[in-house]
Amino acid sequence: MATALYDLTVPMFIRGLNALSGLLDKGAAFAAEKGIDPATLTGAQLIADMKPLTAQVQFACDTAKGTVTRLGDLEPVAMADTELTFAELQARIAKTIALLEAVPRDKIDGREDAAVVLKVPGGEIPFTGSSHVLTFSLPNFYFHLTTAYALLRQAGVPIGKIDFLGGV
Q1: What whole-number distance in Å separates Cα of residue 65 and Cα of residue 76?
Q2: Which CATH number does the domain housing residue 114 bear?
Q3: According to DSSP H, which parts of the chain are helical?
Q4: How much is the average pLDDT of 74-88?
């Protein structure tokens, strides 16, 4: 039996976002325990030309919501990208999870061969529903989730693989 496109997206994004929320909780607790300004962690970058933790969370959320709205041919949902604090990032994650939970399965399943167009600053990238999920959306989502994990871990936050996986 083939795996349904819904199963490859919505539950995976929700699990990843819940894991990201847990990582942020541990980051906030670490900052409080060590007397570190939380903005030091939320503004952390791996290197100067990479975006900070705040953007990694925003991009992970954007990938999840953008994927399901493109696949399901649903109205895009804009978010302002103004989050700076752990609490604001948690609110964005919660809003994204609520959006994902509201997407009906029948809007995603059966769209494997549907034309999906990703609009980028340099133009448009055409995909099928399946290729969009498998070659762009999931890798992109996990890139940002991994980068957020790495930023917190590099700062000394006591997190590990099980935290990244969201518990097992």
Answers
A1: 8
A2: 1.20.120.450
A3: 5-34, 38-42, 53-71, 86-102, 105-108, 129-131, 138-154, 161-165
A4: 95
- The verdict on residue 166 lying in a domain is no
pLDDT tens digits along 116-150? 999 889 999 999 999 999 999 999 999 999 999 99
Query: Taking the alpha carbons of 75, 81, 86, 88 in that order, is the dihedral positive or negative?
Result: negative
Structure tokens at 130: 């399946």
In a domain, 110, yes or no: yes
167, 42 contact by CB (below 8 A): no
- Specify the number of domains making up the chain: 1
Give the domain range for residue 27: 5-155
CA-based end-to-end distance of the chain: 25
Burial class (CB in 10 A: 0-12, 13-18, 19+), 60: buried
